[in-house]
Amino acid sequence: MPRFVVVSPPFHSHAQPMSVFARALSTAGAREVTFACGSEFADLAPELPFTALKTTRDSNSGIAERTEQDARSAQQLTDFLKATGEGAAATLLAQTRRRRAEPLAAPVAVLSDIAAVHEQVRPDWYVVDQIDYATTLALHALDLPFVSFVTGHPTYLVSRDDQFFGLPQAWPSAVRPSQAEEAVLATEVRLTDLAFTVAFTRFLREFAPTRPVPRRAFALTSPHAAVVNYPDLPWLPPLPEHQRQIFLGHCTTPEELDDTWLGRVRDRRVLLVALGTFLSARHDVLRRVVDGALRIPDLTVVVAAGGRVAELADLAENPRVVVEPVVPQRALLPHVAAMVHHGGNNSFTECLSAGVPAVVLPFSSDQFCIAHDAERAGAGVCLDPNAATPEDVANALNSLLRNQNPFAELRRSLRSAGPDRGAARLLDVLGRV
Fold it and tell me: Which fold has domain 259-415?
């Protein structure tokens, strides 16, 4: 059986599912699996060998605003949050312009670090986050075999000339820029695509002149296989034909609530509200969601408020509202009736696994594609996070709560999904490479 190194960027929303998959590979029979990430994530897979490896300048250990960052990264987070208040187009423009300003933060250091890890561990395969471009480039430059892991929407696997990273390929019903805004965004993401490709080309010509230069940087992915933390939905756009995609459906493992949390939710109809590690800072949106949810009788609202607990302290005075910086989301989901989330991949797939319908409030990145999929699969209702009123939230929640058996067909298809089955399939595929 092969030996693996699973490399995750130092972001909790990426490291958590990748650490679960690393453990699943070990359980499935891999000879040895090393988890490599920022040192603050060593406890995610304590039973596995760990290597401290930071492949990006930014990091997020659980609450973005509280993660220690340099001044530049902290300012970029502030700018991002401000852009989310201006709408989808402004947010996506801010994101692509930031990427273009610094296509590769420290590629030489990442190349050196990956080479050092390889010298120490000597794995047969690496598993690397598809959007950890510096690590993917380093592995390509060193000609080391790797599998791509897609922690976001499957369209992160760019396959066609008309696909561009940062330009959603599908939009939900409630959120879509104007034609003029989309035209500007399309121009900007093409410029970013070109900037990344130029940066990759220069790097390879200097540090790995014998290695092939990818025609487009964002299309650089494993030539062998990609593990996709997502359900294999029939309407997904075409994915790269040269690789095998292994859809996990979800990357969760059973978790139990402690007695304190059980006491808070037992014998209650519960709504979970969580906007992720970055967007929990949008306490204005959290407030409107709670105000709307409280219009539904007998509904208890649990809110993950990140670093904005103080701004919502008055809401927590209501006996039907629980406000905490962080909540045990995966353990709570089997005990809740519905969830309000931002369209993050983890929240979407965890809700699917638990059979929990959702109101989706997409702000950025791939969240618009995920909100579209949630609607089309019957797994959720999408609202514009900047325009939705408390009444809109109440109406959306009522429509979800009336459905006693949401997305039943999709739930049945997920019974054969999960990280353990995905890990076994990957070992089988690699055994034939």
Answer: Rossmann fold (3.40.50)
Q: Do 3-251+418-431 and 259-415 agree at the fold level?
A: yes
- Residue 194 in contact with residue 187, Cβ under 8 Å? no
What pTM was computed for the model? Answer: 0.94
Task: Give the whole-angstrom CA distance, residue 145 versus residue 136.
Answer: 10
Q: pLDDT tens digits for 219-273? A: 999 999 999 999 999 999 999 999 999 999 999 988 999 999 999 999 999 999 9
Q: Are 336 and 270 in contact (CB under 8 A)?
A: yes
CATH 3.40.50.2000 matches 3-251+418-431: yes
What is each CA distance from 174 to 88, 277, 302, 400, 401, in whole angstroms? 11, 23, 25, 16, 20
First to last CA, the chain: 13
